[in-house]
Design a protein that fits this description.
This protein has a single domain, classed as 2,3-Dihydroxybiphenyl 1,2-Dioxygenase, domain 1, CATH 3.10.180.10. Helix content is 16%, strand content 32%. It contains two helices and eight strands; from the N terminus they run E-H-E-E-E-E-H-E-E-E. The strands form two sheets. The protein has a four-stranded mixed sheet with strand order 1-4-3-2, with helices on one face. Strands 5-8-7-6 form a four-stranded mixed sheet, covered by helices on one side. Strand 6 and strand 7 form a beta hairpin. Helix 1 runs antiparallel to helix 2. The termini are far apart.
């Protein structure tokens, strides 16, 4: 017996997403060493190299759970791009970070822009690999 696809389903009261929605991000690279040098210079923070199941990654620092983090990743089927999802890195003040991105071979795609209300500021740059990456800061 066939059932209709639009039959009313009981409402679920269990949340599917955690409060901190992003759990992990990956920024593709063609040259992991070059990308790691770029991000360490721009963020003035070391990235930790790991071999995760045969895939080489450089992990961004983070404050532990429940905070999200991510890594630079070198994989044949993951190519850098300015199209698609945009990762925003939260920084204390995006102005010096954006300046360092440009001084290390990146390009400003969206200059420092105020968000409405007291939501802070954002900007976007193209990294040394060709990825569009966002920055956010409260000031």
């Amino acid at each position: 017996m066939l059932r209709a696809c639009n039959v009313a389903r009981p409402h679920r009261s269990i949340a599917v997403l955690n409060a901190n929605v992003p759990a992990w991000f990956e920024i593709p690279t063609e040259d992991l060493d070059r990308a790691q040098r770029f991000y360490e210079s721009v963020l003035e923070q070391p990235l930790r190299r790991e071999n995760f199941g045969g895939t080489h990654i450089a992990v961004f620092p983070y404050g532990g759970k429940p905070n999200a983090s991510g890594a630079l990743i070198a994989m044949e089927d993951c190519l850098p791009s300015v199209q698609g999802s945009i990762v925003y890195l939260s920084v204390d003040d995006l102005r010096p970070v954006l300046d360092r991105a440009v001084n290390n071979g990146g390009d400003t795609l969206v200059p420092r822009t105020a968000l409405p209300g007291d939501m802070g500021f954002f900007a976007q740059f193209r990294d040394c690999e060709g990825n569009r990456v966002g920055l956010w800061s409260q000031r």
